[in-house]
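Continuing the series of single-chain predictions for the mutant panel. This is the parent chain; the variants come on the following pages.
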Amino acid sequence: MKYKPHQYQDYATQRILDTPFIALLLEMGLGKTVSTLTAIDLLLNDYFEAGRVLVIAPLRVADDTWAREVEKWDHLKHLRISKVLGGVSARRKALKAEADIWVINRENVEWLVSELGTKWDFDTVVIDELSSFKNSQSKRFRALRRVRPMMKRVIGLTGTPAPNSLMDLWAPIYLLDQGERLGKTITGYRDRYFTPGAKSGHVVYEWKQKKEAEQRIYEAISDIAVSMKAADWLELPERIDRVVPIRLSGKARELYEKLESDLLLPYLDADVVASTAAVLSNKLLQMASGAVYDEDKGVKLIHDAKLDALEDIIEAAQGKPVMVFYNFKHSLDRIKQRFPQARTLGKGKEGNEDIRAWNNNEIPLLLLHPKSAGHGLNLQESNCQTVVWYDQIWSLEEDEQANARVHRQGQKNRVVIMRLVAEGTMDEDAVAALERKATGQEELKQALKARINRIAA
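Parent structure:
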């Protein structure tokens, strides 16, 4: 396919060429992968400013998306991709293969750093979904931090730079500029921009932003961050967000409120116990969806109200494909039992075939977990106009990425995002929390949005 870049894609590519380390905060659907590959091709073959290029990405994206993009565009087909995936021997073989770009999943970053050590030879590194390195205590962050001085160029890609709060920004930005803008340590960053909130002894559980901290942080990173929204550049079909209220039966409500107040549901065979606030929250979300795990990992059925609502939604779709996001395995099992036509995405080549089948309207009901289907999947070519969140989640990043699998560039139909929310339950709190986080995320994107003159060619 011939590449006809949008103006913003040309701009993004040029910024990569001009900036040794940069964060492209491009909203989902803006084609950041092809913009980045175009820049990499120029750096490799025109400017000769890159030698060995490494892409770090979520597993499914590493296995499929980058190679698929190279094959899709005429101007990139000469690029050779080596997938550093699978077992150790397969990874070592892939590292030695003749290629232009080596792609590895983020779970194996620690292994790669250990394998190469001081012989690290990737001068250009792309971190696809930069926000997945937000935890400065994680092994993947610490490993990449050790070899960061040996990189000449770092390109960070994400649509959600601060998934939960501005505290999430320090680690990703450090991997770009090695602490030049937000400080060399997370402690220094906290002291500069935050004050301690809730704490237990010396352990602080909550940090509150200082006055004008947002503006100061935005200004500090504005020269290496490019932010763009799909709505500003693409005429996407309408997206409608709907909450579908689910009324619980008297018995289900009684069980829910008992666990909420007593932290215990006694059963003859195995009790349901919530020992901490986090466990209680998770258990209540499960119950809101119709089932809950007991202490022996068995499943206690609570209600079928969401299954009934989903049945109505599928019927109303009138034969068009429906996409459903679930968070709990018992939800998956119960949906599959009620709807035998439902399919999930397989792994590897099987998963790639499932994607093809979905985009060709051969799968009527696709069940996806947001953690495994949130990044890099192009599922917008089917006739699907209905996306259902069966279980509610807390992660803004997973929510935005998952919804963007369908509502993105290439979508021709209006898309309706439906959330099945059990009334008076933790479902409502989770949805409200996502809305609050989305507001903060929008403020960040707006503050960093590139000021590009929109002059028609």
